[in-house]
């Protein structure tokens, strides 16, 4: 898959997710945080249902290796249960705009976790890009005030959980992004909603339930599918840097839809963010590396040397997903930490 499509998907994912925080703030007047977390992720499962049904992919992930089952379980627990609950708890203590800005800590958590534990390599230019994104987040935060200590701690825990989720999800192979989102939404959504009802029975209206599910379909369902597709091609850290533009989309939407002015420090932050992302994708490296024999499933095309298998069926799109095998291969080329390049660097 070329780089342009996963970059675009990550940005669309950020725009969808960026709209969820202010909407969730309003819905917390009608739901307990754990109830809303459950509805949002059940909405995510509903949102990807058409993709699952079209490809007849509704089945238990029993065919996955133990490693991939562990990745999937970790992604469900961290990203589907822990993170949204702590985010929504933080929303109870601070404004939606403040919490949106605190969510930039997800980028920091993803970059540090990737470097320390997941072989998501970044060179000097890449770290400069990370620093630029962090500085841009600080600039955006200027003038917004400081969220309460309680909110900051809660959202920080959510960001660490989502950072783990980002890397675990990017490493899953054998299922499509839609399947991964469906499993996460169904399992995490059901658990959170059931616990929420047991703890505090809901008396909200049917209309609010439909609104919550709809937000989940777009901001957590379609958004997650786009993000996973991007992360499997670009690596979790690079995709997360693109995804961290969600607060900027909020500023732009406010200007276009609500007529709010973009103040000078926000303009500077926007330019810095763009420059940082450009620097990030200049950070490629090349060295001799070996690919082991592997069989898995993910989105790919045949315009590079990793996918040389033949197709018995006629393909309508150059970008497709199916189960395929790779033979042992050693070569050197410029590459990103995608699903094929998670090796150690000397």
UniProtKB/TrEMBL annotation:
Membrane-spanning residues: 32-52, 72-93, 99-118, 125-143, 205-229, 241-259, 265-281
Residues of the EamA domain: 6-141, 153-280
InterPro entries, per the entry: AA-Vitamin_Transporters, EamA_dom, EmrE-like
Cellular compartments annotated: Cell membrane
GO cellular component labels: plasma membrane
Record's bilayer topology term: Multi-pass membrane protein
Source species, domain of life: Bacteria
Alphabetically ordered keywords of this record: Cell membrane, Membrane, Transmembrane, Transmembrane helix
Family: Belongs to the EamA transporter family.
Identification of the protein by name: EamA domain-containing protein
């Amino acid at each position: 898959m070329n780089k342009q499509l996963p970059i675009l998907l990550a940005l669309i994912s950020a725009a969808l997710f960026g709209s969820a925080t202010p909407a969730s703030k309003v819905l917390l007047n009608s739901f307990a945080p754990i109830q809303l977390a459950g509805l949002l992720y059940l909405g995510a499962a509903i949102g990807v249902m058409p993709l699952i049904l079209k490809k007849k992919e509704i089945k238990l992930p029993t065919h996955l290796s133990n490693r991939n089952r562990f990745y999937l379980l970790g992604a469900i627990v961290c990203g589907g249960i822990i993170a949204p609950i702590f985010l929504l708890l933080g929303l109870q203590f601070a404004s939606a705009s403040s919490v949106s800005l605190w969510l930039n800590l997800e980028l920091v958590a993803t970059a540090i976790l990737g470097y320390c534990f997941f072989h998501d390599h970044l060179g000097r230019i890449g770290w400069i890009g990370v620093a630029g994104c962090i500085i841009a987040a600080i600039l955006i935060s200027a003038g917004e005030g400081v969220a309460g200590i309680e909110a900051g701690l809660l959202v920080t825990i959510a960001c660490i959980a989502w950072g783990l989720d980002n890397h675990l999800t990017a490493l899953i192979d054998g299922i499509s992004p839609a399947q991964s989102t469906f499993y996460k939404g169904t399992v995490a959504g059901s658990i959170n909603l059931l616990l929420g009802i047991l703890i505090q029975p809901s008396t909200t209206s049917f209309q609010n339930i439909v609104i919550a599910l709809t937000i989940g379909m777009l901001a957590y369902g379609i958004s997650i599918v786009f993000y996973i597709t991007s992360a499997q091609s670009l690596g979790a850290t690079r995709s997360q840097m693109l995804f961290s533009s969600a607060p900027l989309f909020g500023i732009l939407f406010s200007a276009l839809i609500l007529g709010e002015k973009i103040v000078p420090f926000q303009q500077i932050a926007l330019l810095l963010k763009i420059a940082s992302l450009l620097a990030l994708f200049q950070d490629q490296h090349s060295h001799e590396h070996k690919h082991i024999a592997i069989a898995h499933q993910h989105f790919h095309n045949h315009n590079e040397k990793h996918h040389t298998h033949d197709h018995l069926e006629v393909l309508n799109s150059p970008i497709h997903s199916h189960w395929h095998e790779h033979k042992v291969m050693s070569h050197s080329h410029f590459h990103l930490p995608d699903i094929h390049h998670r090796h150690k660097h000397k």
